[in-house]
């Protein structure tokens, strides 16, 4: 049996709830449960249930309650002992004892530095509460216990919040602490944590505003000043005290032992030579901890062994960096080098920062990275860098840390760098490397031939390693056989001793050992841009079955020409990709064959992406007007699988669209972009926008009105998502002009829709209505129920904005009816979002919140950050209007976190207005004014009457002349 007191008093037998009787009977059960098996006398129980003035028949009533409980409980569980009663239950069968055990474990974990695990334990303990403890139980004892348990719960929350701050989850802490402070305004510890969380989130003004509100509240309510720790925190914030960046400094050693990245690739077992370089690097790295930051940039041609030397030197220096080693391949020689913000995100995760705490911008990530490394001794290896600009944000500024950078260029513009120019091996070192791989006996018997081999390789380590590995794998070969095979190629190797051509010549030896199927796959798959490639996409390029392609690609992994990036995904090293393309451009494949392979890849992505789009947007006939499909794609039985495919392939899809955005494939590339436009709402804004811009320029040069119009439509979606309405309208007008000229069924319907959305967000309601009704007419002509539903949703927003709430509700309900889909698609989320806003405008608050709840769940499932943030924002508005400022503040804080990643400054400003209004209603006037001031700074850039109205409303708030909560809100989707 199980019992619960952290909420209503309840009992279960397995999963079946048991009746616990009247309130007094539950009071008896709760009293005995909280005594932990100890006997309670009749007098103690009577006092617990009725206090100092019990009824005359209290003892008889007590016995009756006990008798009824015995009928419910297991035999022998409720025992009569010493004139009283005791409950004999199994250990851990009461939720409060489970919570105590979890808290004990959490505190033990925290004491040894296991903060993440401790946080999880505290969360599990807090999750046991189900509302007010001992809810509905009468009696003075129950009331005392309620107060005790509630105080314990609040202390646990504050402890968990403290852990959140230690783990860097500052924004999440703000979201959780804001409603806690509102509900318990006199808890100074909660306010102290909120101030620190706001400060560490970059919201210093709001942190100071919390202190001002606290001081005023304590003076008004209690006539006292804030406690010393709160006053000290305010002083340190004003002084921008750097120690506030890590309030958990006393426990840093424990943290480092828990989150200690060990990312260095393994050392090469047969590493040879380079003794002078190793000595120099070792001295530099040994001198860096506690003194000067050392940066070593290894610059040389590809294949000369930069990475091998850097990894070996880093392993050699590991004892001097006990807090960990970080590694990243910056892919500087590839078509798409790793962005610094991407590398910083990976480093922050490796250092223990959760995804939700990692900011978006490069500057913020770099600052957080430096803060996390403060006081730690970490070695950072930045491999294959493009230039100094790429690596500067990744270099720690903390004494005790060191950085090794490898690059093909000499980084003379990297301040403070110690430059090392790495040349090819000496003949002796080259022969030593060859011998280690092949074996001493074989080399000793054919010493002259071995020298011929390493000379033919140009003494380039990568070439030597490939040649020696081939020989080692073929025991029937002699060294002379290998030397003879290299003899015809020596002329080319002599000509290509510098640069990548030496590497190509070396690869040629291994490439010659591939069978025809392997060689063809190596050449063709290497043509595709993108960070990696899936098995299904590679099979399309090869025009082979899944099984045959997998067998071939896995054999290439065995040879070292391909790498297994993940199960079912493959990638090329940058040098082998270049070599594969060089092979494909020779006589093996004609230009037509190379083009055909890339076209099949494009068609595969287009077929699969349009299938995903059709599932996510049921009834949208727009996909039928895209370029006809010429190659099959992947089909999905479940919507979740389709969404996962799109998320995993987003970068590869955009790379393919960009690579083929010209010539005969221009239209198909742009249609591929159009079919994956949902990824913009998930945060892939920059890469999508860059690709669409390239496609747009190509379409203009080709004078292809259809392609250009659809590219403009794609850019319109990007700017709408980012909140750049002026740019969105410019692209939409261009797209509309092109659509009218050629009567494109895709853009002629969706571009008026987009222009209607833009006009709606700019409060041009008459134009919005006209554009949306034009779109509605086009969708009807095309028999497009999805388009109709989308237009109806936006018309619902228009009607709600004009005060026609009955019409707004009807339009949104019609949109849901037209979809006619049971699946939780994005289309359904948009419709429920519209219905929620319309119901809210009509005053049907519970129904509105229910619709927004359902929309929010779908947005989160689809990882659509924009929709998620807007749904949270609208819920905050509704809670505020319903007189629930605490809930409004909590929802607004969550919306700020989400919309900080996508949506633009304007949407964030709208949320800040709501947050400020909620704070004002709770008496947090200083923080409210800070929020309004931040929003006003954004509204200064809003032009026209709308901008004046927004600024006037906020200025009225800030001056105390008007506290209305209507200015600054827009319908935004």
Descriptive keywords:
single chain, 973 residues, mainly alpha, three-stranded antiparallel sheet, 14 strands, 6% strand, disordered C terminus
What does the model show?
- The structure is a single chain.
- This protein has 44 helices and 14 strands.
- A hairpin with a 5-residue loop joins strand 1 and strand 2 (10-13).
- Residues 247-258, 290-301, 489-503 and 965-973 have low confidence and may be disordered.
List the helices and strands and how they pair.
Blueprint: E1 2-4, E2 10-13, E3 16-18, H1 23-34, E4 40-41, H2 42-50, H3 58-72, E5 78-81, E6 84-87, H4 95-111, H5 115-127, H6 140-166, H7 170-183, H8 188-200, H9 204-221, H10 228-238, H11 252-258, H12 275-287, E7 295-299, H13 306-316, E8 325-329, H14 340-350, H15 362-373, E9 379-385, H16 388-391, E10 402-407, E11 417-421, H17 427-438, H18 440-445, H19 447-456, H20 461-473, H21 479-487, H22 490-495, H23 500-511, H24 516-525, E12 533-534, H25 535-542, H26 546-559, E13 563-566, E14 569-571, H27 574-588, H28 591-616, H29 639-659, H30 666-675, H31 685-702, H32 705-722, H33 725-742, H34 747-761, H35 765-781, H36 785-801, H37 805-819, H38 826-841, H39 845-861, H40 865-881, H41 885-899, H42 904-921, H43 925-939, H44 944-959
Helix pairs in contact: 1-3, 4-5, 5-6, 6-7, 6-8, 7-8, 7-41, 8-9, 8-10, 9-10, 9-43, 12-13, 14-15, 17-19, 17-20, 19-21, 20-23, 23-27, 24-26, 24-27, 25-26, 25-28, 28-29, 28-30, 29-30, 29-31, 30-31, 30-32, 31-32, 32-33, 32-34, 33-34, 34-35, 34-36, 35-36, 36-37, 36-38, 37-38, 38-39, 38-40, ...
